[in-house]
Amino acid sequence: MALLFAAQQIVVEKVRGSQVHWVIEGALELVEWYIWAACTPLVIGLAKRFPLMGPRLARHIALHTIVSLMMAPLASVSQYFLILGLLRFVFYIKGPEVHHFLSSFGVGVLFMSFTGILTYWLVLGLYQSMHFYQVAMERQTTAAQLETQLSHAELENLKSQLHPHFLFNSLHAIGVLMQEDVDAAGRLLVSLGDLLRMALERRENEITLQSELEFVGKYLEIEQTRFHDRLKVHMDIPPDLLGVYVPSLALQPLVENAIKHGFSVDSTASRLEIAAKLHDGRVWLRVRDDGPGPAPASLLRLGVGLSNVQSRLKQLYGDQSSLELTGGDGRGCEAIITIPLRSSH
In Å, how far from its chain's centre is CA 223? Predict the structure, then answer.
């Protein structure tokens, strides 16, 4: 501010054709503005104590008006005598030459008081603006944190729903197997325990495709015990996609759906395909079976597991993801998940 006002005064002197005193003008302006720099903490303290907001706004405006009318003349008197001392004892300017730089006491104090009042309200306004901005940013940050926490809670709730759904279906498979092969059912219970431990230990909402395939592989070991050699799994997974992130427990419900509606209802079904590829910068995951498929002209509906997966995709990726369930060419059914590419490499 001192440099700005000094430059303004120098320009005025040049326009008038007067002699320009660069050092003197700069020093005098520094005196004036350093006094207000010293007053600024007091102004900010009053702004914090009596903010220009809230139910007492009118009272606080009146208070700041009174304070500015008191502070500005006091600062102006200090400025006047400090400038006078600077001219006389530092620059050795005395007599009539002093009036070239400094007006008479009354005029000088009056002019500097007017500038001081404007300065007081300028400091007050700047602080209040910064305060409003800070409060707005804090509210925005808090809202974003609450939204993130809510989204995370919803995701955890949706993921936790998969555990009992998966458990009940697996126990049903074990119950069926108990009537046929008790030893196999015992081994199936041990495998189920390992699989549930893997599911419960997972805390992340996204894991690598390789980790998800390992979990699906454990689940398929259980189902292959149930269906013996009839269930043949074919995987088409490019090695460079094993490191991409996919939703945790996303493929298993698709595999479970294919086995439930394909292999469990049709003894001729034997092929289960799991594929992944990269298409237009998005990851495409597909699970397909060669079961009977949906009846012609029937409406495909998502069950509990697939509806849950669809909701979690919406929570994680919004409109950038999709889950499609379609019938095959005459036989079978396929489920396709499309998500944005997010790599761990």
Answer: 41
For residue 187, CA distances in Å to 179, 192, 260 come to 14, 9, 21
Measure the CA–CA gap between 317 and 310, rounded to whole angstroms.
11
174-189 pLDDT, tens digit per residue, is 787 788 778 877 877 8
pLDDT digits over 245-256, tens only?
998 888 888 888
Sign of CA dihedral 99, 100, 106, 109: negative
Which amino acid is located at 252 in the chain?
Q
* DSSP string computed for 279-336: ETTEEEEEEEE-S--PPTTPPP---HHHHHHHHHHHHHHGGG-EEEEEE-SSS-EEEE
Specify the residue for token string 């279906």.
Answer: 169
Residue 215, amino acid? F
User: ∠163-168-171 over CA atoms, to 5°?
Assistant: 120
User: What is d(CA 146, CA 161) in angstroms, rounded to the nearest whole number?
Assistant: 22
Query: How many whole angstroms separate alpha carbon 314 and alpha carbon 316?
Result: 6
Q: Is 185 strand, coil or helix?
A: helix
CA–CA separation, 272 and 259 (whole Å) = 8
Q: Return d(Cα 225, Cα 341) in angstroms, integer.
A: 35
Stretch (H or E) spanning 88: helix 57-89
User: Cβ(33)–Cβ(23) under 8 Å?
Assistant: no
pLDDT of residue 345: 47
User: Quick one: average pLDDT of 300-323?
Assistant: 80
Quick: pLDDT tens for 214-259: 888 888 887 887 777 788 899 999 999 999 999 888 888 888 888 8
* Interatomic CA distance for residues 233 and 206, integer angstroms: 24
Q: How do beta strands 232-236 and 322-327 pair?
A: unpaired
